[in-house]
Each structure stands twice: as C-alpha cells, then as structure tokens.
Amino acid sequence: MTRRNAIKGAIGTAALTVSIPGLAHTPGRKPNFLFIMADDLGYADLSCYGRREYRTPVLDSLAAQGMQFMHGYANSAVCSSTRVGLITGRYQYRIPVGLEEPLENPDLGMDPSHPTMPSLLKQQGYHTALVGKWHMGRLPNFGPMKSGYDEFWGNRGGGVDYFTHKIAGANDMWDGDVQIEEVGYYTDLLADRSIEYLEARAQEADKPWLLSLHFTAPHWPWEGNNASGQAESERLDQQPATDDLNITHFDGGTMATYAQMVTSMDANIGRILTRLADLGMEQDTVVIFTSDNGGERFSDTWPFKGMKTELLEGGIRVPLIIKWPGLTAPGSTSDVPAMSMDFLPTMLAAAGGAPDPAYPSDGIDLHPALAGITLPDRTMYWRYWSKTQRAVRRGRYKYLKINENEFLFDVIEDPQERGNLKDRLPDVFADLKQAWIEWNGHMLHDPNARSYGFEPRHLADHYDWNS
C-alpha cells in the first residue's frame, strides 16, 4: 500500500462511531487532564499520521486507544500566539500578548487578571501544574503561577538548549519563580518532573488535577539525546549570544537529529503513561496530545504545503490525539475540525464548570465529536502579520490571502491548496472574505512595530506564491 493510500484510508470517511466504548472512569469523579503539547511538530511527524523515516510507537498506541483527529488546527502558525489561545480559550487576537511573536518585549505578557484554563479549573477543585515551556511573558509581572498554575517547572522563553538549558547565553530553568540548574537532556528532565508530579497527585487521589506538559521538542536547537547532540550543544555554547539571527535556530540540524528529538519525546511520553497506569490513574485521566503550530524545516507536513509562520494548511494543521476513557472509541478517527482554544471549554464542561461570562470562549465543547457525532460546519479564523496573511475555513472551503494574492481552496479535495476556485465559486469566495472582515473588526489591530519577528525567508525553502 502506498503512503497516500494509507493516509487516505485513515482520513477517508472517518470512523465516527462509538461501537467499542473505552473503559469508563470512576463514577462521580471529575477527570484528570494530562495535556501534552509538542513544539513545532508537523502534521505528519508521527508515524500514525504518515511519517515514514522513523516510528513513534507510543503516540501510535495512544491513537489506537483513543481518537485521532484528521482536522486538528493550531490557533496560530506560531508559538506564543497559540499558547495564548490555548490558555484563554479565545482568539489570541483579543489580547495584546497574542499579537507578538516571538515574544521579546519584557513589558508584554499574559495578563494575570485574565481567566485561564488552570485558574478556571482551580475553581472546580483542581490542582494545576505546567511542566515545560511557558513563553507568555517574563518575571516580575508575568508567569505561569500568576496565571493559575499551582506549580511550574520548566523554561520561560521560546527555546532552550537541550543540555545547557540556556537561551541567548543565559540559564532558563525554573522551579516556580526560582531559577535552578539541572543536569541532563531537557526532554528527559521534563518527563522526570512529570512523573514526580503524578506520584505526588496519587497521594491525594480524591483531588483532580491538570498537568500541562509542554515539551520544547522538536523545536531548535537541533540536538538529539546522544553524543553528537552533546557535541552540538558544546559547539553552540561557544557562539556569541548576541547573534541577531540566533545561531541555535538557523545553523545545523539533520533529518537524523530531528528523528532523534521526536522519538525521544515519544519514548518519554511512554514513560509517563506507564507510570500513570502503574499509579492506578489511567482510567480517570484524559490524555490529549497536539502541537503548537505546523512544522519547521525538518518536519513533514504532508499532504499539505506550508510550514510554521504560514497560514497554508502545513502551518496550522497539527496532529491531535485524545484518549478519553468512557467517551472515545478505541482506534476511532474524526473529521471534525478542532482548534487549540477548544480544549478550555471541553475540559471545563467535564469538570462541571464554564468559561467566565465576562471572557466568553471562542472555542467549542468537543464532547459530541469525541462521542463520534458529526457537528455542523463551524467557521474558524486566522491572521498573521507577515505578508498580511488572512485565512478562514468553513466546511470544505478556505479563503486565504497572502500579500495581495487571494485564493479559495477546497481543502478536502485539494489539501495542497493548488487549485484556486475564487473565480469558479465567486459567491463562496465573497462570503468567506466578508466573514473574515467582520470577524477581524472585533479583534485588536496588529501593532505598527514589533520587538522582533520571523520572516519566512529565514526558514526553509518552500512554495513561493509570488513565483
């Protein structure tokens, strides 16, 4: 069977049935949530989504035990913005911190007064923790423990060396608001800390919990968990920390190294899930795995075009796997589009809560989709300041604008976004374009200047819409 046919078999008609229910969680108990997010992982970077060069057996197994979404989307094509959408359950363009990427302005961050996923779950009796990447503002004004997390252990910036745990020459490892030093490969350390958290939660078994595990893998720098990765870390540690383009980002890397980074993350997730089961918490825990945006230079975004920083499908379509005991059918798939901001209303509904009415969620409760129910078409919006990109998807059609070029695509039949239908379907084109304009009128305007920003030219070669 060819790769194309194998994926079409998975995407195809989508097994939206619940004929084989999962084991139910403890009656009357609020579920725990283990939310795992990779960093810059492409849509097809897991073998269950079609990656051929390596295997990801743990996440493949998670998909076989739960539901695999074929239309999972990130709130943004870049990192911080998606994290803002995730933690607030809202379009990030409503909040100043959601407009800046990368987040370099020290006076900009996640407003501690804004309700968040962890703060709202705490109101429902949950213990909450973030292990891994924050990237939504610096101390003293911003941080995970100011935005609802009871515990934080990880890095505050956008990327960190996997061995020295530095960014731009400075240590970026924290336990709460205290800077610490650790020895080891960062992906391993995050798994170690997550296991410690689970063990602590098992001692207070009646209290539900949220563990947000935000890996930095497979984000740059390009370092695997081996001798060559250690050597690369030592080389990068000798480079000037003031390099404007940041040599840890734009220099080095191979496909083999990328495979090591992804498979290390997969294996460490396996360690965590094994310990979860050993502690007797598996059937009371919802496990969610996804990525913060589309893939970067070594990623596989097949069958899509585009990558991180772009609103082509490859920049915003991400893997999404959910195992919900008693709700998701083992080995099921869904064609229901889902976004990062949907997790907040979904979790709160299960916890017996709801979003703060003063800050209503733009996401949807995914419970019907998780039960195998087909939902009505929803309208989803994106924008990104670079190249004045705009996008909106409703059903099978997607409006896309890049600079002054406008397109209408059928992303079901044409996932590579090659056939422009705007002249063939002018009414659909006009309707989606107007919908985007009206939606954007309710969002904040992009700032006129930024502290710093990526340009697509800094990344890998890809399809050039101006050619």
TrEMBL record:
Record-level Gene Ontology MF annotations: arylsulfatase activity; metal ion binding; transferase activity
SUPFAM superfamilies: Alkaline phosphatase-like
Annotated InterPro entries: Alkaline_phosphatase_core_sf, Sulfatase, Sulfatase_CS, Sulfatase_N
Recorded superkingdom: Bacteria
Alphabetic keyword roster: Calcium, Hydrolase, Metal-binding, Transferase
Domain Sulfatase N-terminal stretches: 31-352
Family (UniProt): Belongs to the sulfatase family.
Name this polypeptide is given: Sulfatase-like hydrolase/transferase
Taxonomic lineage: Bacteria, Pseudomonadati, Pseudomonadota, Alphaproteobacteria, Sphingomonadales
